[in-house]
Each structure stands twice: as structure tokens, then as C-alpha cells.
Design goal:
With 229 residues, the chain is mainly β. It is 7% helix and 32% strand.
């Protein structure tokens, strides 16, 4: 469940080398900074609509549109035919694949987005990997650091597994969907095609093609007219 092949279609990224030989997908995040330092060749082939800040260590592919007010600090590698919308904030060490959306007031840092991933509205994505066609609903936050000190641990065969990362948000498998205003807590893993309902606070492993629902039922009462003077 934690290996790159379990969660991601590696042909749906130009950067499959990041995952070569890895047992655990999150170890690609440990390689990300050095990978960009070695392989990034800055170049801007995009179109700007309005005025955006784009740092020196940034590559952007053809057909990508960067809207007014976006800030791309870099190092960042952004693919072809993406939408980087108004107010997007792309910080250090970010890879964004082809045909991706990074929307209004979204913030990304130290993360990898496979092709056609969508982070479209008011999202925070830190120290995370989003697979092919993974989608975050409006307001989804990926929390990447525990309130208590120390590394992020996951469960493996009933025993704690140290990821070696103090900051680690989520692995969101291919085609997974996360509903509006949900929170993925540190060390979350969503399997391929899984679904997290709106407003759910999730931590742990959600297997492939499973749904995490909010168990709290709505309280429905009959509407009665108010008394007036």
C-alpha cells in the first residue's frame, strides 16, 4: 500500500526517476530538493495573464497560463497546459505535472503533483504527493506536521513505522477524491480511487476504492412559524 506502484501510475509523470528503487513513496520527498538542484533548467514557456512573480529557479512548460497575482518562488518545475490561477503561492521544491490546476489562494510546498491533478480552490498542500487525476475539493487542507514533536509514523503490520520525516502530509493515490473542507492529517495515505467525504478529518490509511464518511448525522426538525408580537 505504501510503494509507488501501489499508489501511482509512474508513466503519468515526467519525473518517475524520483521513485526509482523506493520501497516507500514518501521517500521521494526526501529526494525532491536534490533532484531539482541537479535537473531543473529554468525556462518560461508560459503565458501570463496580468502580473505574476516568477523566481529564477523555475521551469514552466508550453501552454501553461499563469494568472495575475500568482507567486512562484521556486525551485519549481511546472509542466504543460496547466492553470496557475490568481493568488496561487508555489513555494520551494515543487513539481507540477502536465494539465494540472493550482487554483485561487492555494499554497504548495515540497510536493509532487502527477499529471492532471487538481488543487483548485483554497487548498494547502505541504510535503505531499498527489497522483494522476487526484482532486482536492474547495478548502481541503493537507496538514504536514504533528502538534507534538517528532517524526511521522505509519502502521505496518500492526507495528509503528518511522517515515524519517518530521514534515509529511499525505500520499493521495491516482483518481482519489477529497471533499470540500476535509482535512488530511499528517501521514495520511489514500488509495487509488478512494473518496473522503466533505468535512471529514482523516488520518491513516484508506484502502483503494473505499469511502471515508462523516459519521455524524444531521438533526432534522419540523419548521414551525415563529411567534410575533
Amino acid at each position: 500500500m505504501y510503494s509507488p506502484a501501489d499508489l501511482f501510475t509512474l508513466s503519468e509523470t515526467e519525473h518517475g526517476r524520483l521513485f526509482a528503487g523506493l520501497e516507500y513513496s514518501w521517500d521521494a520527498l526526501k529526494r525532491l530538493k536534490d533532484y531539482l538542484n541537479l535537473n531543473l533548467r529554468p525556462g518560461l514557456n508560459n503565458k501570463c495573464e496580468g502580473r505574476a512573480y516568477i523566481g529564477k529557479e523555475v521551469y514552466i512548460g508550453e501552454g501553461t497560463v499563469v494568472e495575475d497575482g500568482a507567486m512562484i518562488k521556486g525551485p519549481a518545475w511546472i509542466g504543460k497546459n496547466c492553470e496557475i490561477r490568481h493568488g496561487a503561492y508555489i513555494r520551494e521544491n515543487v513539481i507540477i505535472g502536465d494539465d494540472c490546476v493550482v487554483g485561487n489562494c492555494c499554497e504548495l510546498k515540497n510536493s509532487i503533483l502527477f499529471n492532471e491533478a487538481a488543487v483548485p480552490h483554497f487548498n494547502y498542500v505541504g510535503d505531499s504527493i498527489l497522483g494522476h487525476r487526484a482532486h482536492l475539493g474547495a478548502g481541503v487542507k493537507i496538514s504536514n506536521i504533528k502538534l507534538t514533536k517528532g517524526n511521522i509514523f505509519l502502521d505496518k503490520d500492526g507495528l509503528p513505522l518511522d517515515t524519517g520525516l518530521r514534515k509529511f502530509g499525505a500520499l493521495v493515490g491516482d483518481g482519489a477524491e477529497v471533499g470540500c473542507n476535509a482535512v488530511l492529517n499528517p501521514g495520511s495515505v489514500l488509495g487509488r480511487g478512494s473518496l473522503v467525504y466533505p468535512n471529514v478529518s482523516w488520518r491513516g490509511v484508506l484502502p483503494h476504492h473505499m469511502i471515508a464518511k462523516n459519521p455524524t448525522p444531521h438533526h432534522v426538525v419540523m419548521m414551525r412559524p415563529r411567534e410575533t408580537d
